[in-house]
Every structure is written in C-alpha cells, then in structure tokens.
Design a protein that fits this description.
- The chain has 408 residues and is an alpha+beta fold.
- It folds into 2 domains: 210 residues, Rossmann fold (3-Layer(aba) Sandwich), CATH 3.40.50; 137 residues.
- Helices cover 24% and strands 31% of the residues.
- The protein contains 10 helices and 19 strands.
- The strands form 3 sheets. It has a 10-stranded mixed sheet with strand order 5-4-3-6-7-8-9-17-19-18. A 7-stranded antiparallel sheet has the order 10-11-13-14-15-16-12.
- Strand 1 and strand 2 form a beta hairpin.
Amino acid sequence: MVDELVADGTIVSAPVETAMRKVRREPFVPGVDLDEVYQLYNGVVTKRNADGNLVSSVSAPQVQAHMLEQAEITAGMRVLEIGSGGYNAALLAELVGAWGRVTTVDIDEDVAERAESLLADAGYSRVNVMLADGEFGAPEHAPYNRILVTAGAWDIPPAWQAQLADGGRLAVPLQVRGLSRSITFEQGDWHGYLVSRSSRMLGFEPMQGEGARQGGLLALSAGAVALYFGEELPAEPRLLDGVLDNPRVEVWSGATIGRFEPWAGLQMWLATALTGFCLATVDPMLDTGLISPPEWHTAAMAAVVGRSFAYVTTRSIADGLDMELGVHAFGPESAELAEEVAEQLRVWDWEHRTGPGPRLRVYPAGTLDSRMPEGRIIDKKHSRVSISWPQAATAAAHHGERRALGEP
C-alpha cells in the first residue's frame, strides 16, 4: 500500500511514509478482509444508521495520506482531529511523537468508544479520545498547531479558528457551491481570517450535529433531473417548471479537456464565474435522454438564470484523446446563457488552465464588503468565503494574444 502511495506521488515526505509503514490498518477494522482493508482508494465502513446510511468509516489510505501531507505535521505538535476512527489518530500520534499531543473527537458515542478501545489495544492510549460535537472543537486541550477535519464541512465555525495556535493550520474538506475540496488554511496577515494554502478534490461523509447542513435540491421533469445548489435554491425555483420542454440550444466552446485530465480546476472556475452555478444529475431509472452529462461523469456542471437552464457536456474530437467542451441550454434565454457558459469555458482554457488555481479566504460572517477581497463571495452561517484566481504569467500572455486577435 505504502509503496504504491509513494510511487503515485501521494506520499512525498519521510515522516508520513514512516508513520504509514508502522501503523497497520487491520487492528482498526477487525474482521475485514485484508484486500479491502488495504485498498488504496476505498474506505472501510465501520457504522451505518438504521436507514443503512454511512455514519462512520476508516477513510481510504490515499485520502488519509494526502491530508497528512497537506497538514505538514512535525514532532511535538498539538493536533486536533474532528471525526474519529482510530487509525488516523494513530498515524497522527506517530507524527507528533512522544512530546506531542493528539486529541480526537466524535459526536457518536459508539464511534468514540470504539476508537478509544482500538487505540488502546494498538498501543496508542496516549491519544485523547473525546465524545463531543466537532463544531465546537475541544477547548480543553487547545491551542492546536494543526486541526484536521475528517468529515465533510459546509462552514468554518468560529471555534476552529479560535483554537488554532499562532501559525497553526486547518485542513478541512469544505463544501463550496456544491463542490467538496480538501483545503488547508493558514491564518492571514491579521488574525480573524484564513487563507488557503493547498486544495484537492476529496469527499467525506457529512458533518453531524450543529455543523450538519444540506444544500438545496431542485427536481426537474418529474424528478428525472436533479439540480444541486450548495448554498441556496434560486429565489423563484418555480420559474424552471417545464424548462426541459423547450427546444435545446447547443454551443461548442472550442476549449478541450483530456479524457483523463482532472476536472477540479474547471469545476471551481465555473463555480466562481457563474452566478447560478449548480450540479445536474440524472436519475438512471427515469432517464429519457433529456440531458447528456460529460463522458464518465455522473454530474454535470450547470447554471440557472431566471427561466433558463444550461449544463456543460462533451464530445469526442479527432485525436480520440481529448474532448471538446460544449453547452446545452433550455429556456427563453437559452442562447444567451449557453454562450455565457461557453465563454467561461474558454476563459478557463486560456487564462486559468495552467495557472496557480483558486485562492480561498475565510472571513467572519458580517465582515463588511469593503473589507472583502475581489472575487466570488459566498455567505455561510459563520463565515464569508471569497474565491479569487491569481493569473499565471502564461495566462497573461494568452490574454494578450486574444486581445491582439480582437477577442474578449
């Protein structure tokens, strides 16, 4: 397992490699087949609720290794883990060493008790295991040099920032406009806001307790198509009634993407650039061919404006290795909306595809607009999140080329 994680570039530091070679996974998932225990990209379910929904798991090795590399934990640190399973806390204990301190909290009594027992049996009784709502951290053992959140969060509660030590770092799978990203934040130039250091597309089970939050879901065509909005539904969702009964408008952008090229940057760019951004999925049991998500994708990037709806799709091009990005749109303003989305595909291709990617900043809720940086502002319960896109030198050159050709 570790050999493969090193070979694929997930593990890049000696401390993480050493810790993952030392701590075995099977003591934390007793009775599970070893092939499943050590599968790189799948977690192991440890608890489901009465409805059969996933409540707790030991995350996939690739996910855990990536978050540990993001956090850059060193010996002697105090670390808080929000969301317990046992195995990850043992890895943290190896990284901080005998002079460091690891606290892990979980809202579920069964999960917390199980983690405490398994950690003790594996020789990690020095880890503090607490039954608590992770929304409020663990002030008893604060401040922390690192806080790792191993559950999907919709917001950054004040307690997490308050419990970070000076120079501390927060690693959290944060949902932004329906997109889940594992983001590492550091404190900004002045206390009270956080700025992203790294980001990667990763998904986790959602937070429970006070931090639980579901985005808005809007059904079209009798439930055949569902639109997921990460923050709020459109102000007048009924305007979309019957939108898919309209003729389809099709626009091809000229921008391409490789069949195996990551989509994370493009997704975040559209989430930044498009006001009505959402994700569109099709129920396979009700699918009538109304929409065609991009190849190999279960959800399509989409946008809603008034009575119109558009989504991103793809088509193969001659070389067979790349796909052209296009837009299908429905509704009275479908032509305008399709062209707007297509233009943002071109902007990503020309200006941000090879750039440094987005920078996210988290400010307290109520921060005045005049104190917020330029970019897309997303309001949540506890915070205001800004997304901005630094431009790479190559992107600036491309922008100049487009100007010279008379393009916008």
